[in-house]
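Subject: Transposase

B.,
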Amino acid sequence: MPRIARSVVDGLIYHILNRGNGGQIVFRKEQDYRIFIELISSAWIEFDIKIFAYCIMPNHFHIVAMPLKGENLSNFMHLIMTTHVRRYHKHYGTSGHIWQGRYKSFIVQENNYLLTVLRYIEGNPVRAKLVNSAVEWEWSSHRERINLIPNKILSNPPIDIPSHWTKFVDEPLSLNDLEKLRNSINRQAPYGEEEWQIKICKNLGLESTIRPRGRPAKWK
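Prediction pasted inline below.
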């Protein structure tokens, strides 16, 4: 499968994720989670990245970020990933690939689609049945967002966060929302309204991410 071009633009919002190689558990104990979050906490300052959400799961992670300078996003992720891998191997005495490959990323529209992404990410531990409520998971942005712990990472997103945010996150997303979002994850397709999606794909050369599979696309 061909790689999707990295089209990173100043001031756009990106959902970034990666999974352990072969689905392996990457974060085995509390220290592993804490170190990874500390890496995010230091790297966003160095590279002038706004972080709108994150969630660290046992075998994968999600980050929602907006680079003020597009080229800084890859530098931000490179620092996090390489530092994490080096520390992981040193601590556990291992070698080889930890992650399944380079991280995935896709652009998110600044409207209710972004709100859905934030809900999806912070609700991940609930869907995985690791906790009963997002507020119980220590390794996500949820507790920072609702001011249960000091905010060291999060920036305010360019949308209004509903009151009773925890209840909103704990509620299941619709099947339609999940299907569309997971399609963007799998194909790294911009996530948003159809008209916006088509326009941004044309502008950034991402047509292949939304082109129907198995038949030629017709672009006017």
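The domain at 13-206 is CATH 3.30.70.1290 (Alpha-Beta Plaits).

T.
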